[in-house]
Amino acid sequence: MVQKRPVKNVSHYSDKLIIKGGKIVNDDQSFYADIYIEDGTIKQIGENLIVPTGVKTVDAYGHIVIPGGIDVNTCLQAPHLGMTPADDFYHGTRAALTGGTTMIIDHVVPELGTSLLAAYDQWRDTAHKRSCCDYSLHIDITRWHDGLFEELEYLVKDKGVNSFLIFMAYKDKYQSSDTQIYEMFSAMRELGAIAQVHAENGDIIEEEQKKLLDLGITGPEGHVLSHPEEVETEAVYRAVTIAKQANCPLYVTKVMSKPAADVIAKARKKGMVIYGEPIAAGLGTDGSHYWSKNWAKAAAFVMSPPLSSDTSTPDYLSSLLSCGDLQVTASAHCTFTTAQKAVGKDNFTLIPEGTNGIEERMSIVWDKAVATGKMDENDFVAVTSTNAAKIFNLYPRKGRIAVGSDADIVIWNTKETKTFSAKTHNLTVEVNIFEGMECRGFPVVVISQGRIVLEDGKLNVTEGSGRFIPRKAYPDFVYKRIKARGRMADVRGVPRGNYDGPVHDVISMTKSVPATPTTRGPSCPGKTPGGPARNLHQSGFTLSGTQMDDHIARRTTQRIVAPPGGRSNITSLS
Amino acid sequence: LVLSQGEQTICTCTSDRLLIKGAKIVNDDQSFCADIYMEDGLIKQIGENLIVPGGVKTIDAHGRMVMPGGIDVHTRFQMPDRGMTAADDFYQGTRAALAGGTTMIIDHVVPEPGMTLISAFNQWREWADSKACCDYSLHVDITEWHKGVLEEMEALVKDHGVNSFLVYLAYKDVFQLTDSQIYEVFSVIRDLGAIAQVHAENGDIIVEEQRRILELGITGPEGHVLSRPEELEAEAVNRSVTVANQTNCPLYITKVMSKSAADVIAQARKKGTVVYGEPITASLGTDGSHYWSKNWAKAATYVTSPPLSPDPTTPDYLNSLLSCGDLQVTGSAHCTFNTAQRAVGKDDFTLIPEGTNGTEERMSIIWDKCVVTGKMDENQFVAVTSTNAAKIFNLYPRKGRIAVGSDADLVLWDPELTKIISAKSHNLAVEYNIFEGTEVRGSPLVVISQGKIVLEDGNLHTTEGSGRYVTRKPFPDYVYKRIKARSRLAELRGVPRGLYDGPVCEVSVTPKAMTPASSAKTSPAKQPDQPVRNLHQSGFSLSGAQIDDNIPRRNTQRIVAPPGGRTNITSLG
After folding, report:
1. What per-residue confidence (pLDDT) applies to B20?
2. Residues A381, A387, A389, A393, Cα dihedral to 10°
């Protein structure tokens, strides 16, 4: 099944470059220096560099030089009802490079009946042939089956995957139950991976969809009406609760509404290891367009969770992104042509979901957050590449301009503006959700793997030149705290004498009641309840006989972990 | 099967003329001094210098407070659990209630799986009619969900005087319902005009945590609280608030045990949700530190779900929220098991039968924690111990108020009387009292139930079987006025558009034919129908193309703005 992919020849032509006169911007500081690049990596940084002759010089004077963007959420391959997204790995990564993004992390969505590994191989094959920039892969857990844990382990240990996404929505299709989520989270913590969630309550959504269709509402406005933001917020809250119990790092994809972002912010204040990912669409536009009289336009905005119909949302999300309550930006780029969207012309639930944003992401963040003074250029680098690289263990290979890092570099024009339009974009779809939007800040030169792919407005990409970037488990940025808490949060029982009083007789039917509903999802093959492994009652351990103060109630058995913000009930941290 | 009520009432209420003189009458809105004359179990006159028949028994209140008898909205007397029955049955339980100043209880009917709601309801009626010493009513718990349940709920509301149903978010594989089922139950409840109650804890996670804790070798009662951290309670409250908002259904959270759960309720109220929270005697009066007691039997007595919080500041916090109105009603969740019964779980905490005492102590604990400390006044005390409950469950003004025509359920309250709660002196059948040694100020001196003195000079004079079943009508005004207004406003309309006539991509399969349905119990609700009206075909349009068609807008939403405001109003329906 696994096909051999030829090793990529990185040393194409002209792989020696010097960038002169720019201000280098990392997430921690900015400074003036030249950068010398060879063989796709940064070899020297400094002034008056000694470089071979005949090196091509790129003039960055007056611009800033930043690490290429990392788009942590794309769906360039995932099929919907047998239709593949209009922008595939080639068109998608091409558009990404145009916008200053030099790496993407795509979601592998195994179709039902396909194993995770088979889907992973299929994605790698396609990306290998088509991708124009480096890429990595998240794996979505769409189905619960025997051998899932083994597959996860294999993917983490041998295949360079350290993040998995779980769906709390798409009932009867992808949705997992709370029990399954708990088990997945526990498995991921053990493997050192990051748990991602698509946070929406699928049960409620389905009921609301039914209700709206019954009311005769069939247009795209039905999509947002059936996905109210409370439903997103509820799911985020639930995911936070489970992650806390499982002591697993949590990553919420597509933060689309104010209350959902608030839940994340609050959980962080309580000490949770949690990250929130707003996307280009959520930062750049809102849900009022679902009411557009133009069906094709309204349908172009259909995605889940939907854009909020509260028009103050984009501003709020970019504020939270600026203050650090949200950390990473993505595009969730997943586009369908109007003819594809029109599958749902009489029923909004059939409209394939997804919006564009891969090309516009960097400019939108600059325009909304930096141009408005909410964040500085260093924060900009943090939210567009560095944080993502740290969380997903790509740092410092990606997300930083430093000697030894990959030569994925963008020269960014901070002063001029550009207008988005379906007429000029590099996508294959007819509608651009940011149509007519004027954004300050755009890339003038994009360097990927040490090669210039965008210069003077001209794209020069090579299909299939993108490499798969494996990601190791236990990213330090995420797991240092998790590990410390794992050590601290040991729970112990109370050593007591045996209870030797009378015991009432019971009909033994503890849980013999007919198999009942597992909440929200198919039944899971996880470990069955085992008997207690150790029994402290029988261990004979006692403190040293009866204590003088035995009658006083106390909690002798808890160690206290105090994460920032404090909490009232600590024992559950593990 | 059901006993004739009329007969009972007549035979037990002889010589029932009573006069209380010189009382300070305390209602939830005001206090005033007047005499009260009662006859036939009803309050007939209130005022000064009343003209009453001669030879009436007179109680001299000497300016002491007389208030409406307490309503304990949550009891589980005689609840069956794996073949055992709760130690305090309807006789013991209501007797203890009366001793503490509570003159009405609302008990929970828990149909065991496989039992119909109606037969369970009749079973409870039979038990209570033969044993209860005070008036009672019944909540019915929905422990499974199928087509028949819907019809039974309708029958219970229309013919049997039930207006509240409880669903469980916990007890996986026993009572727990899925979110879809809860959505459907809430929709049915809203249509029937009843109140949705939830037992709020995330059952899925609890099962996982129990397994983990047992694997660690922790088998004692401390495992109970370790496996049910308060986050799980708060999460479930948050989820039920979300579902209730979507279905526009009034929500009532039973047993608010933790600060974080109470905060979720308070926040939801600020956003305009019609939600009520019920802290119980145990959570107001003690905390979860006792789960770590070295005495197994004592530790096991505290086992209840959601558990008492190990955070010792919880009782004080909940009392504050109760005083400021963020929480509204108090129950006891009285459900006791004796030590031998508890000991079924001596080697595995998950087998310990759950429930604590509190029906007898409820009024005194609240007085001591809230009124003595100055958090609330006597009127608020009446509100949280009886009036609010009567309003929510549509018993008002028959219960929960001292007024002409109301039931003669009264308590003569002594705010100075100090008592030490102890298993030695309580009126319960169990060996332990979770409030053992707690000294409380404020106690009933005289309790009058159905116009008869049942407590006087510390002596109880109760009559087994004298309690009447009190029916409750649907659509309580206090709850449903807002719900109705919102249903009217929250109408959703689609956007009238021309027909989309561009190309349409071919697709192979139907959207949801992939996997078998998620829940074993299939839901009885309506299958997804084709849309009934199709606005595309209606030919309706505003008046041709509008000049501002290119500007995005939402022309189809009316805005409802409940207190606190919300961003997304369209979901209120």
Report:
1. 95
2. 160
CB B202 within 8 A of CB B235: yes
With CB atoms and an 8 Å threshold, state whether B530 touches A308: no
User: Residues of chain B with pLDDT > 90: what percent?
Assistant: 77
Q: Which fold has domain B66-489?
A: TIM Barrel (3.20.20)
- For B327-363, how does the pLDDT look when each residue is reduced to its tens digit (9 = 90+)? 999 999 999 999 999 999 999 999 999 999 999 999 9
Indicate whether A381 belongs to any domain: yes
* Window 542-571 of A, Cβ < 8 Å to B: 547, 550, 553-558, 568-569, 571
Chain B residues close to A242, C-beta within 8 Å: 205
pLDDT-based confidence at B525, cuts 50/70/90?
A: very low
CB atoms A309 and B178 under 8 Å: no
Residue A525 pLDDT > 50: no
Q: Which of A203, A537, A556 comes nearest B179 by C-beta?
A: A203
The residue behind tokens 């926040």 is: B267
Cα nearest neighbour of B242 on chain A: A230
Q: Do the beta carbons of residue A235 and residue A200 sit within 8 Å?
A: yes
Give A-chain residues touching B571 at CB under 8 angstroms: 208, 225, 228, 230
A158-183 per-position pLDDT tens digit: 999 999 999 999 998 999 999 999 99
d(CA A543, CA A550): 11
> Is residue A523 one of the residues assigned to a domain?
no
Under 8 Å between Cβ of A564 and A271: yes
The amino acid occupying position A218 is T
CB contact under 8 A, B289 and A503: no
Quick one: pLDDT at residue A508? Answer: 59
Contact residues, chain A, for B511 at CB < 8 Å:
81, 173, 349-350
Q: Which of A222, A343, A503 sits opposite B505 (nearest CB)?
A: A343
Nearest to B502 among A234, A339, A572 (CB): A339
Q: Which domain, by its residues, includes A218?
A: 65-485
| Backbone phi, psi, residue A164, to 5° | -130, 140
- The SS3 call for residue B357 is coil
Mean predicted lDDT score pLDDT of chain A: 87
Domain boundaries, chain B: 66-489
| Nearest residue in chain A measured CA to CA from B314 | A568
Q: Is the model's pLDDT at B194 over the cut of 80?
A: yes
Q: Which two tokens stand for residue A35?
A: 């950068």
The reported pTM is: 0.79
- Both tokens assigned to B503: 């190309």
Count: domains in chain A:
1
The CATH number linked to A85 is 3.20.20.140
Q: Does some domain include residue A385?
A: yes
Please list every residue in chain B whose beta carbon sits closer than 8 Å to the beta carbon of residue A217.
492-494, 531, 535
Distances in whole angstroms, Cα of residue B19 to Cα of each of A42, A406, B46, B448, B565: 97, 93, 10, 11, 50
In a domain, A49, yes or no: no
Most A CBs within 10 A among B208, B260, B521, hence the mutation to make, goes to B208
Confidence of residue B113 (pLDDT cuts 50, 70, 90): confident
Residue A516 scores a pLDDT above 60: no
Secondary element (H or E) of residue B410: strand B410-420
Q: Please report which confidence band the pLDDT of residue A485 belongs to, taking 50, 70 and 90 as the band edges.
A: confident
Nearest to A201 among B176, B179, B258 (CB): B179
Strand-pairing partners, residue B38, are: B18, B43
Helices (H), B420-535: 477-489
Give the pLDDT of residue B272. 86
Q: Could you say which of A214, A519, A537 has the minimum Cβ distance to residue B179? A: A519
Residues A204, B179: C-beta atoms closer than 8 Å: yes
Which pLDDT value is given to residue B62?
87
Task: Check B519 against A241: CB less than 8 A apart.
Answer: no
